[in-house]
Amino acid sequence: MFDVVGVECDQLLCNAGKKRYPSLKYENLTLKTADVDRERVLNILCGQKGERSAIVSLHGCGDLQPDLLQWFTKLPKHRVPLLFTVGCCYHKMSCAGKPVMEWALSNALRSVCRNNWVLHKSALRLACQGQLSRWPSSKEERDAHCACFLRRALLECVYERSGINAVKRFPRHLNRSFRELQSVGIEIAERLKLDGEERAKMIREYRNTYLDHQYLFDTVEPFTMLQALMQMPLESLILTDRYLYLMESGCATYVLPLFDSKISPRNFCLVGCHTD
């Protein structure tokens, strides 16, 4: 028998979890703040006195995975011998966009970093996108992928030209499921319920944007293929750093693919085990 304790920094999500799974215990806990309650963190992660705990994180978003790794290396070995964590959303790290030296955990990576070497947020975001195994194989799938990419890219240009903040104003579904690439301007004007001059302006802006960038359309497939090829090296750098950090801390460490990456690209589990 074992007990499951859910740990979450957002009190609203803790409350929602209690309603959905009332048999589980939930702790509202923040791991990374200037005034973190170290004693409380240790007590929660170590579990009940006389028992042993494992830390399991299946979506270690942003700072969560590196924070858990650092806490794990400080916990009593006999109380918390195991860590299982799947990282995600590397671009949401608080140090994202800053020199690699500021987020690298291992001495091995830090020793080869130039002080000004930066992996930009776009690279960290690419590191947690789909792996090459998810690249569309048939011509029909590739054509659909390129069309989807172009629609989003052209709309971003239109929104920028029009002074529209699409992220804040529009639900995600408004920018999806269009029919023809050339008619997107008309469709988005209908979805936004524009009329008169606003409607005409949106349609005109889209048509002009389409014509201005049409010469680039054939570069979309090789460009997105290059992105897919870069994903694994970028994620490998991050995972290797975290793997080496645990190794340097005296832990037996493994990186295990949990399932087929076609199911989900976030399939690498970092396993740490305190050794005697």
From TrEMBL:
InterPro entries hit by this protein: Methyltranfer_dom, METTL25
Domain of life: Eukaryota
Occurrences of domain Methyltransferase (ranges): 3-94
This protein's name: Methyltransferase domain-containing protein
Organism per entry: Parascaris univalens
